[in-house]
Amino acid sequence: MKILLHLILIFSLYSCNSPKKNKDSTTSSAVNKTEQNQTPENVIYDDSSMKIIELRSPTNESLRGISIVDENVAWFGGANGTIIKTTDGGKNLYFMNVPYQGDTLDYRDIHGFDADTVILMNSGNPGRIYRTNNGGKGWKKVFNFPVEQLFFDAIEFVDNQFGIAYSDPINGMHFILVSGISGKMWIAPPTENLIPALEGEAGFAASGSNIAFTPSKRAFIGLGGPKGRMLVGEHPYKDWFAIETPIFQGGSTRGIYSINFKDNYFGVAVGGDYTLPDTSMVENSIYTTDGGITWQNPETPLSGYRSCVTYCKPANLFIAVGTNGIDVSDDNGKNWQKINDLNLNAIQFVKNSNIGYLLGNKGQIYKIEVK
């Protein structure tokens, strides 16, 4: 009954909310272009496999949300109302307007459809999702649910229409929102389809990447807690079920932090325990060769806790990042090799490209090229 009342509250709040505009919606601040372009490349890492360059970031705030639209456009989100955009492949990085003047929300995930249309999610209370169609000059509140337990971990789109947002459980049930109209409105699955959460089970808002889709549009949501479970759903994401995996488990800080699929068969999930960043063990990651039906631990482990994993198609390489460095796997997660010690939160590549970005805990933005 409580769940039903909360769902009714969602729709009443949505229908009553009128979009508000940022008072400063006609302006945005930017890094000085002349100074930016005159700054020499700060090469952090360069060997036969990859090159990493530190860009001139306009912030010192922790950055976790990342969405790369194409080789020119990328969006980044972070703590204390931080929203950053580039339209020239990282040469210049701009602060964008927050949805409401004075906002200090923690934007841990962001999804860009193009240079103008973006979905923004904050982690923490109040749980909100915003949307802009004018490049961040003004934002509309497309979801607002004033329930204290709501804590969004990630938001992800399988195409230009269908997206999923996941929050930690509310009243003992996993809370999943679905949009079928490009994030303009969000609805919850039917009450009878909600999945009960185990005691102490929740997600992690470490890199906005604990949601992943296969090319066939099967969805996976990674969890932490007493069991290393995943929630699995099929398009259009009304029905879900849970599976167990051999990821590190048994505590609220342990579990799956990030998932990524190479194709319909091969996928990797990483995590561990962020309070044990340097502990290397096979349970810090898992991989699948059958589309997520079964998962197993690697033979050679990651070098520690990892908050994000992605796939670089041109190099056929999975890359995982965390607070004590970067690991790579060229055999679909079966064996890992550490390549450096950078302290990182997130990584993502331009689709079908060897160029991407890395984000750090003190505002660092790096550009990566896999050779």
Draw up the topology in text.
Layout (H helix, E strand, L loop, with lengths): L1 H15 L16 H6 L3 E5 L3 E5 L8 E6 L5 E5 L3 E5 L7 E2 L10 E7 L5 E6 L3 E6 L7 E6 L6 E6 L5 E8 L2 E7 L31 E3 L5 E4 L1 E2 L2 E6 L6 E6 L5 E11 L5 E7 L11 E4 L19 E5 L4 E6 L2 E5 L7 E4 L5 E4 L5 E5 L5 E6 L1
Antiparallel strand pairs: 1-2, 2-28, 3-4, 4-5, 5-6, 7-8, 8-9, 9-10, 11-12, 12-13, 14-15, 15-17, 16-19, 17-18, 19-20, 20-21, 22-23, 23-24, 24-25, 26-27, 27-28
The chain-level mean pLDDT equals 90
CATH class designation = Mainly Beta
CATH topology description:
Methylamine Dehydrogenase, Chain H
Order of helices and strands: HHEEEEEEEEEEEEEEEEEEEEEEEEEEEE
Which of globular, elongated, flat, extended, rod-shaped describes the shape?
A: globular
What is the topology, as strand order, of the major beta sheet? Answer: 1-2-28-27-26
Count of DSSP H/I helices: 2
CATH superfamily: YVTN repeat-like/Quinoprotein amine dehydrogenase
Rg over C-alpha atoms, rounded to the nearest angstrom: 19 Å
Q: Which residues sit in consecutive blocks of at least 5 with pLDDT less than 50?
A: 1-39
β-strand number:
28
Largest sheet: 5 strands, antiparallel
Q: What is the annotated CATH architecture?
A: 7 Propeller
| Distance from first to last alpha carbon | 56 Å
Question: How many structurally independent domains?
Answer: 1
> Helix- and strand-based class?
mainly beta
How much helicity do the residues have?
A: under 10%
Beta-strand percentage range: 35-45%
What does this structure look like?
By secondary structure, the chain is mainly β. It has one domain: YVTN repeat-like/Quinoprotein amine dehydrogenase (Methylamine Dehydrogenase, Chain H, 7 Propeller). It contains two helices and 28 strands. It has helices spanning 2-16, 33-38, and strands spanning 42-46, 50-54, 63-68, 74-78, 82-86, 94-95, 106-112, 118-123, 127-132, 140-145, 152-157, 163-170, 173-179, 211-213, 219-222, 224-225, 228-233, 240-245, 251-261, 267-273, 285-288, 308-312, 317-322, 325-329, 337-340, 346-349, 355-359, 365-370. The strands form seven sheets. A five-stranded antiparallel sheet has the order 1-2-28-27-26, with no helix packed on it. A four-stranded antiparallel sheet has the order 3-4-5-6, with no helix packed on it. A four-stranded antiparallel sheet has the order 7-8-9-10. The longest helix is centred in the first third of the chain and has 15 residues, at 2-16. The N and C termini lie far apart (56 Å).
